[in-house]
Amino acid sequence: MAGIIRTGIGGWTFDPWEGHFYPADLAKKRQLEFASRALSVIEVNGTYYGSQKPETFAKWASEVPDGFVFSLKASRFATNKKVLAEAGESVEKFLGQGLTELGEHLGPILWQFMPTKKFDPVDFGAFLALLPASRDGLRLRHAVEVRHPSFMVPEFAALARKHNVAIVYAEHAEYPEIADVTADFVYARLQKGSDEVPTCYDEAALDLWAERLKRWSVGGQPGDLPLIDPDFTPPLAPRDVFAFFITEGKVNAPFGAKALQQRVG
């Protein structure tokens, strides 16, 4: 048994994709329709900067096919709080803006923290406790991306497991890489691509990532990625896996996502 593996990109509007990923004659208003049929998931960055209307989420849902999901980056007003325990109002405002209009197309919610945010187990635990497991009858899946080395301790992994929150595995040149499985799904952001490579990552890297994603999907942990709590073995169970080509190599990110999806089935 294995979970569903979805590979995707960040957003769907990017000028260099026009006439490259998108047909040259495709109207902008049809880009989501096209992208959602070529890929299986898209991470939405706009929700980090501001709220959307319920009608907007409903419109997005109406334009994508069955099985496609959106990952939403949560509001910066929640994750940039000096005291995270005081983020309850911002968390509620984000979750209450109408995102459940996405219905079955609602994927994980990504809570991304500034590189300057250090690990405070009491305060961070209070923040995780603010994240509900459901909203309007829909299951919510939460992932956290931390970017300060103070998080590279077993206590952080244990805290994430306690709340069934996934720690984002970020393949990045500067930020910590934490591959510990802490939830019933896995979230990876692949950020070492190149615009010079037609598929963002080269063939060998894509093959390697395909094996890692498959390993996660059957409940394991890849043996070649860094862990902060190596003494803990996660329960063997199918897990959905979400992997995004983000930041570097963005021009060819859609082709990387397609090539990786083909490798994992």
Largest sheet: 9 strands, parallel
Number of H- or I-type helical stretches? 9
Q: Which band does the percent of strand residues land in?
A: 15-25%
In the CATH hierarchy, the architecture is Alpha-Beta Barrel
Strand order of the largest sheet: 8-7-4-3-2-1-11-10-9
Helical amount: 25-40%
- The CATH topology turns out to be TIM Barrel
Briefly note the structural class of the backbone: alpha/beta
CATH superfamily: Protein of unknown function UPF0759
Number of E strands: 11
Shape: globular
- Overall average residue pLDDT: 97
Q: Which ranges are low-confidence, i.e. pLDDT below 50, for 5 or more consecutive residues? A: none
Q: Gap between N and C termini, in Å?
A: 14 Å
Number of domains: 1
The level 1 CATH classification is Alpha Beta
Account of the 3D structure:
The protein is an alpha/beta fold and 265 residues long. It has one domain: Protein of unknown function UPF0759 (TIM Barrel), CATH 3.20.20. Helix content is 29%, strand content 18%. The protein is built from 9 helices and 11 strands. The strands form 2 sheets. It has a 9-stranded parallel beta sheet with strand order 8-7-4-3-2-1-11-10-9. Strands 5-6 form a two-stranded antiparallel sheet. The protein is globular.
